[in-house]
Design brief:
There is one protein chain. This protein has 5 helices and 3 strands, in the order H-E-E-H-H-E-H-H. With 125 residues, the protein is of the alpha+beta class. The chain has a single domain (4-124), classed as GMP Synthetase, Chain A, domain 3 (2-Layer Sandwich). A 3-stranded mixed beta sheet has the order 1-2-3. Strand 1 (34-41) and strand 2 (47-54) form a beta hairpin. Helix 1 packs across helix 3. The longest helix has 17 residues, at 4-20.
């Protein structure tokens, strides 16, 4: 991002929403399996797109998006309180499948049975 303030606000919003997930009581939001991947704030700081991903898959992320949309007022209030800004950006939540994809890749790598002698040769080099 070219705008330093927007980039800083994006990372702050990601941090605040990620920390507030456990406090939300909505049954659609499974805080243990949900991750805030990133947040992008527009140049005029009026809209923030928040990308969320779930380890349970894209369908669980879409359900969590519905829960987060209903809690957006509370989250905006928390952003204003923590950052001390006058007006919080409008939050738009988008389901992302990156956490599920990375878990799939990790599982595939673990399934590759690399012999111990190959591991030892790589460590020596």
């Amino acid at each position: 991002m070219a705008d330093f303030k927007a980039a800083r606000l994006s990372s702050d919003i990601q941090r605040i929403i990620g920390g507030k997930l456990r406090d939300l009581k909505d049954p659609r939001i499974n805080a243990e399996r949900l991750t805030v991947v990133r947040a992008d704030v527009s140049r005029d700081r009026s809209v923030a797109k928040v990308y969320v991903s779930s380890l349970d898959g894209i369908s669980a992320a879409k359900e969590a998006v519905k829960g987060l949309e209903s809690a957006s007022g509370l989250l905006r209030h928390e952003i204003v309180a923590v950052l001390g800004i006058r007006k919080a950006p409008e939050l738009r939540f988008i389901a992302d499948d990156s956490a599920e994809y990375s878990a799939h890749i990790s599982k595939m790598l673990k399934e590759l049975n690399i012999p111990e002698d190959v591991k030892e040769e790589e460590n020596e080099n």
